[in-house]
Amino acid sequence: MIGRQHTQNIAHDDTLADGGWSLVEMLIALVLLALLSAMLFKALASARSGLDTFRLQAREAGLDAVQIHLRHTLAGAWPLRRGGAKGDAPIIEATNSSIEFISNYSPQGQHGGLYVVALELVNSKTSGVFDLIEKRTLHREPPQTGGREPLRPSIRTKLISGIVSFKIRYFGTLDDERLPRWFDGWSDSVRLPELISLEIVFPANDKRVMPKIVVGVPASR
To answer: Rounded to whole angstroms, how far apart are CA atoms 8 and 168?
Structure first.
């Protein structure tokens, strides 16, 4: 009788052991859970880093396109007066932070011809930074006056957003100076500068970088 009761107790204890977790099993499960969590965290961090890299490459690719566009536009500067009452309007209006000139460069998808192009900074939606805007107007020369009138409304394009400054300089000879040098503005109503440089500065925490653009103006020669 005592032996049968002892056998039943042992069987009952084995049933409890089979239905629960031992301390060793719980420790192993916790270790595995920690390893899986670490692997998942590493995978998420790697994916996020890859996404950031992709976004940066996309932004850099966009900057490359803008740089090419600006180079072609400046290299197409055309020594043509825009006309006026006396026909003595300057062929270029240029300061240290804005420029307006005539270019024969027509971006792909736009009507060919001569364009009046203006580059300037406008306040961005984010405080403390600016957007670089291009205003492009297709013009033609009326045979009666020799002036220029727009064929269609101006096209405004945001080239780059969120920049700190946009600096333009001009290399050439003004007035009666014999030796060419760099100027912060250009006021010659007859000649174009020989070189135009553009420098764009991004915020300190911005990873975007654009090298300084220096373009020769063939029409100035």
So the answer is: 96
